[in-house]
Amino acid sequence: MMSFTPYTRPVRAAFVGLGRIYDLNMRAYVDNPDVEVVALVDPSEERRTQRQRDWPDAQPFGSITELAASGLAVDAVEALLPIPLHEEGVIELLEHGWHVNLQKPMANDLPSAQRMLDAAAANDRVLRVMENYLFYEPLRKLKATVESGAIGDVSGYHLKMVGSGRGGWDVPMSSYEVQMAQMKRGRGVLVFDDGWHKLATAIWLFGPVCEVRAWIGVTEVVPGFDIDAPTMIAWEHENGVRGVWDIT
Fold first, then answer.
1. Per residue in 164-196, pLDDT tens?
2. Which of 41, 50, 129 is nearest to 87 (CA)?
3. Beta strand pairing status for 127-129 and 99-102?
4. Domains, the chain, ranges and CATH?
5. Which of 52, 81, 179, 217 is the most buried (most CB within 10 A)?
């Protein structure tokens, strides 16, 4: 068990990783009286300069080691690292005595995730994997409706996801290169990465899962770049509710 005493002052927070996902996560910090952004950490000087326009008073650092050596007081870190760097980076952050809010997916495998959990317990720090879908108002309304009994007992539900190269936001090639490396390990962008949101929502709605069956497909987008679709995944919750997720 980890202990935590609520702060009676703004939380001193550091962003570690200033890539594309930063643009989403920083929004929760803007005009937020509960937090003070004190540090920006990224090996790219260009990114540090760009992001400091958002936080003129925050101190820039090229690495976690530099931040720790500076003596700057930090309470918590928004860890926006590439997935392959999660374990090493998170353990280092926890060992410096900082609470960590981590991006999904947590890790590439269960042993890696467990090592991070062990480090959080050993340092008596909070390690949270951020799941923003659970705060999405339409889903919260859905959960309240289900729990109210207004639609009766739920026996099953269906999720539909369509992946397309059209629309979306601009993503730098460096981010795509990390995704490609992940997919070569069998960690597809649809099921493993974005799919984290869907599976987390399913467990949040209907509780623990006892059995999963899956048929993971593959489609080549360009030579050397595959996506994990078409895919069908079905599971049963411990309470008997069954879910089906179809990805095209």
1. 767 666 776 677 677 777 777 778 889 988 899
2. 129
3. parallel
4. 11-130 (3.40.50.720), 135-247 (3.30.360.10)
5. 81
